[in-house]
Structure formats: structure tokens, C-alpha cells
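agent> Task received from the user: take the single chain below, predict its 3D structure, and emit C-alpha cells. No templates, no multimer pairing.
agent> Plan: (1) validate residues, (2) run structure prediction, (3) serialize to C-alpha cells, (4) report one or two observations.
agent> Step 1 OK, no nonstandard residues flagged.
tool_call: predict_structure(input=
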Amino acid sequence: MTDTARAGLWMLGAVVSFTSMALAGRAVSLSLDTFEIMTWRSVVGIVIVLTVATATGTIRQVRAERLWLHGVRNLAHFTGQNLWFFAVATIPLAQLFALEFTTPIWALLLAVPILGERITTRALVTAGVGFLGVLIVARPSPETLSPGLMAAAACAVGFGLTAVLTRRLTRTDSITSILFWLTVMQAVFGVICAGIDGDIAMPGRTEAPLLIVIGCAGLAAHFCLTSALSLAPAGVIMPIDFLRLPLITVLGMAIYAEPFDPLVLLGGAIIFAATWSGLARRTRA
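)
tool_result: status=success, residues=285
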């Protein structure tokens, strides 16, 4: 099997993982708020990271020299993920996934001030086309502009900032170190935010398996994506990620009776085409 084929299989794993996390997040949101979901998800993540890192001997790679940068990165991810879980519970899943595809566009724009990268005409065109797709998906108006829709659009900004700061961290830190501080810091953030009212809900028999799915799927998705990118360029394998949109559309219709909206698919396709085109050009360059 070629590296590209193996990368494709890893990307399919990422698609399944992200989709599983969305379905489990929708189900558990009936009894837990977003801060509680993030708290228990991070606890599951800590157990997984420590177990795998200890078993593989990579626990020695955990470093504490750049905790401030880890803190900024994980706060951005914590904010974006909370907004994502809020949107999961309040808007159609297909609409959320379509708006989430703007993450690479935000990463492209935020890399200019943070990483010192140059903004090019192609990048501006990519952002403009992507924004057109957002307008088609969201169709903002006083009647449709809901908190869930704004949360879905804003979570992509948080994820884009996370991606840029991750690129900066990978210059000095290993994946094990990044994941360790991700889970630990977000557990602390979650406890603070969930406990601010003096009441953190304990997961019951129904919620516990869903939280385990969320914790495992979240780490699995990022592991699969990282493995895929280590085998093939982003411009080659990222089109597979678009399968998330039609897949979640079908599952949303079948499980939650969500209406089929062809404009969401159209807008999502435009957003994805814009980002993929930029990635493909970078790959050829």
C-alpha cells in the first residue's frame, strides 16, 4: 500500500472520529452543559494520554518550558470547543460542519501576525470565496441569525488560532507534550468554568459512555489527522475530509429528523473548495 493510500485510510478514521464526537456531543448535551462536557472529556483525555505515553516511553518528552504558549493555545481551543458543543446542541449538524470548514481560512489569516507569514493575493481570494460560502450556509438575517449559528462561525476562529499556535509549538515540543498540556489545562479550565455556580454535574450511566466516546474520538481524530499529514501533503488528502459533510447530513436526517438543506451542502462545498485550492497550490509549490 502506498503512503497516499495509507494517508487516505487515516483520513477516513478522522472523518469517523469527528462524526462520532458530534453525535455523542448532541446526545450528552441533553443533561450536561458545555463546560461539564469539556471537563469530563479532558479527564478521559488525561487518562488516555498518560496511559499511552507511559506505555510507549514518550512521557519523558513532556516539557514545561513554554507553558505560557500552551496556555494561550489551550485557552483558544477550549473556547472554540465550547462554542462547538453549544452549536452541536442548537443548530443542524450539517450547518455546523460546513461552517467549521472555514478553520483553515482563519489559520491562513492569523498566521500573518502570529507566525510572520506574508499575506498573498491568493490567500485573500481564498478568504473571499470562503466567506461567500459562509453567506450561503448561514444566510444571515434577523430571523436566522441565532446564537447557535454565531457560535458555529466563531468556533472556527478559535480552531484556526489553535492550529497556528500548534504549528509554533511543534518547533520545540513533541505531540505527547502538546496533548498532555492540552488535556490537563482544559480540565482545569473546565472545572473552573463548570464549578463557578457551585454545581458540577456528575455523569450517570447514560452520560458516562458518551463522554468516553467524546474523549476517545477527539484524541483519535487529531491522531488520525496528524498521521495522515505525515504520509501525504495536505492538498492531496484533505478532500477526504469533505466526506464529513454529506455523512453528517444523512445521519442528522436519519437520527434527529433534521431537514435536508441543499444550500448548506452547496455553501460547504464552496468553503471547502476554496481552502483545498489554497492547500493544493502550496503542495505544488
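agent> Step 4: summary for the user.
The two ends are 26 Å apart (CA to CA).
agent> Done.
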